[in-house]
């Protein structure tokens, strides 16, 4: 049996950052030898210049084909992001390797799948963090919208190539603007590809915007050619985005790390147009757009997501049901789960000949049952115990310490008042001095007592808000379609062993079997 080593880089910058094929190959082979593999049984699959967000990678597909033939015993990869930067794609690859009986090892993350509870805890915390980030983003976006409607350009962290952000406005950088116009002419009139333009810029020694990245990329060139900013108009609130499932690689020295990817476009009526200085004239821009339109490719249909694919089994014959989708010809897609097909002359494994069932209805019931079980479990309480001291929900330990300190100060003032009374009783203080000092102590006591009351009220309010926040998050988890499908699928894979289905009668009966006791 073979031991497969998979290595991948997407750009030359990654090689400079220590992710080179040679570094990955050396570490993975050393790890394989430590596991007992012989040098002759190690086969290396290398992927140079392949994006981690793309499943159509020749070396990866060859590795999976070999795994299906049963010739590979284990696969060794330096880090999970070398396998894929997409959570859903990564889960699909891992599941297929496991079905083929192949062990998966990550050099940087040993024993990554040894604890079911740890995997579940991670998925729950990730989902709640996603919810909170959405709330923060919504509030932040509201403020940005007000500023943009007032005509203010909103800086994005790195100034656009050709411009410099100065005193709340964009001003043209002449040297960079000349490069932008060259890109447009090369693409429109010399018919150069994006990669050819990037290579020509590198050959001419043109620095990038940050001057920290060594090479121009075709993606950067394409973004510049498609950006209407260079024709004098910057649009705000044009796209809908979400945070990337994995962080993109970072250019050394840059502080920005939370990359967001475009998932859709808003209605043009919602766009906010802000005039900016023009770099490219209208004729040149139209020539570029005409070529881009001629090279446009049809987008593939979105992949159909099935929450219970591979987990739904018949409780009578124990066959795993198939997930399927059909188009009614009117642009509406119907999703189903159905029993496995059988040959006409084959003896039926299930005498009841159960029909197909709607996927959405089954998934809704199973998801709600899964969430209810988790909310009643110790794991859910552990999650809130973990989050209670985090920035998401706030930490009340400081408030408790403050109340304890204030109580000690109140006791100290009470003791001081008692000593004053003793000194007055023994004649060590006259009436006037005693009255003044007692009054001062009482003023301090009442002021401190008022602070204690305010702090107690604030603490009770925070506790009520925390309870309301928990209830809001629980309602969000139960809301149909509100949780990211990839996260829902990750929860199912972490908790559910199988879902047994009995569809013999008019109604469908479901039994959810967990992988471990919650």
UniProtKB/TrEMBL annotation:
PANTHER family: DNA RECOMBINASE-RELATED (PTHR30461:SF23), DNA-INVERTASE FROM LAMBDOID PROPHAGE (PTHR30461). It comes from the Bacteria. Residues 160-298 form the Recombinase domain. InterPro entries: DNA_bind_recomb_sf, DNA_bind_recombinase_dom, Resolv_N, Resolvase-like_N_sf, SSR_resolvase. Residues 2-151 form the Resolvase/invertase-type recombinase catalytic domain. Gene3D superfamilies: Putative Large Serine Recombinase, Chain B, Domain 2, Resolvase, N-terminal catalytic domain. This is Site-specific DNA recombinase. Pfam families: Recombinase, Resolvase. PROSITE patterns: RECOMBINASE_DNA_BIND, RECOMBINASES_3. It comes from Alicyclobacillus hesperidum. GO terms for molecular function: DNA binding; DNA strand exchange activity.
């Amino acid at each position: 049996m073979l031991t497969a080593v998979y290595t991948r880089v997407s750009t030359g910058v990654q090689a400079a950052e220590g992710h080179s094929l040679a570094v990955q190959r050396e570490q993975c082979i050393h790890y394989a030898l430590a596991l007992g593999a012989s040098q002759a049984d190690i086969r290396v699959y290398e992927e140079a210049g392949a994006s981690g967000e793309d499943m159509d990678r020749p070396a990866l597909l060859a590795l999976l084909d070999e795994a299906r033939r049963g010739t590979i015993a284990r696969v060794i990869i330096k880090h999970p992001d070398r396998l894929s930067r997409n959570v859903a794609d990564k889960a699909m690859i891992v599941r297929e390797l496991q079905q083929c009986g192949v062990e998966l090892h990550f050099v940087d993350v040993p024993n990554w799948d040894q604890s079911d509870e740890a995997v579940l805890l991670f998925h729950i915390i990730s989902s709640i963090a996603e919810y909170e980030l959405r709330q923060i983003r919504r509030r932040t976006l509201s403020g940005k919208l007000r500023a943009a409607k007032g005509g203010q350009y909103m800086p994005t962290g790195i100034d656009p190539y050709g411009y410099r952000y100065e005193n709340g406005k964009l001003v043209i950088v002449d040297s960079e603007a000349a490069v932008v116009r060259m890109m447009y002419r090369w693409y429109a009139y010399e018919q150069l590809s994006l990669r050819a333009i990037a290579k020509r810029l590198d050959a001419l020694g043109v620095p990038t915007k940050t001057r920290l990245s060594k090479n121009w990329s075709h993606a950067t060139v394409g973004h510049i050619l498609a950006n209407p900013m260079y024709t004098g108009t910057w649009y705000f609130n044009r796209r809908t985005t979400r945070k990337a499932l994995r962080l993109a690689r970072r250019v050394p020295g840059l502080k920005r790390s939370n990359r967001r990817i475009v998932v859709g476009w808003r209605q043009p009526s919602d766009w906010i147009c802000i005039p900016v200085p023009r770099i490219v004239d209208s004729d040149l821009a139209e020539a570029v757009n005409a070529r881009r339109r001629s090279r446009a490719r049809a987008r593939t249909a979105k992949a159909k997501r099935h929450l219970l694919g591979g987990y739904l089994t018949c409780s009578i014959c124990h066959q795993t049901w198939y997930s399927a989708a059909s188009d009614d010809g009117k642009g509406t897609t119907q999703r189903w789960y159905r029993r496995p097909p059988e040959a006409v002359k084959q003896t039926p494994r299930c005498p009841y000949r159960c029909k197909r069932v709607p996927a959405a209805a089954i998934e809704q019931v199973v998801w709600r049952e899964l969430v209810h079980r988790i909310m009643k479990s110790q794991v859910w309480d552990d999650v809130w115990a973990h989050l209670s001291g985090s920035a998401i929900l706030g930490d009340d330990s400081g408030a408790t310490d403050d109340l304890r300190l204030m109580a000690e100060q109140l006791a100290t003032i009470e003791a001081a008042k008692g000593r004053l009374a003793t000194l007055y009783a023994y004649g060590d203080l006259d009436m006037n001095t005693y009255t003044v000092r007692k009054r001062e102590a009482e003023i301090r006591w009442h002021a401190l007592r008022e602070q204690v009351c305010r702090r107690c009220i604030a603490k009770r309010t925070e506790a009520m808000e925390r309870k309301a926040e928990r209830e809001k998050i629980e309602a969000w988890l139960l809301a149909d379609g509100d949780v990211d499908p990839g996260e829902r699928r990750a929860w199912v894979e972490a908790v559910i062993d199988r879902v047994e289905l009995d569809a013999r009668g008019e109604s469908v009966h479901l039994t959810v079997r967990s992988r471990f006791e919650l």
